[in-house]
Amino acid sequence: MSPDSTPLRLRPLTPDDVPALDVLERTLFGAAAWSPASLADEVVGPGRWYVGAQYGNGPLVGYAGLWFDGYDAQVMTIGTAVGHQGRGIGRVLLDALVARAREVGAPSVFLEVRVDNEPALRLYQRAGFEKLGLRRGYYQPENKDAWTMRLDLAQAPGGGPRATAGSGADETGERA
Question: Residue 88 and residue 72: Cα distance in Å, rounded?
Answer without folding.
Answer: 26
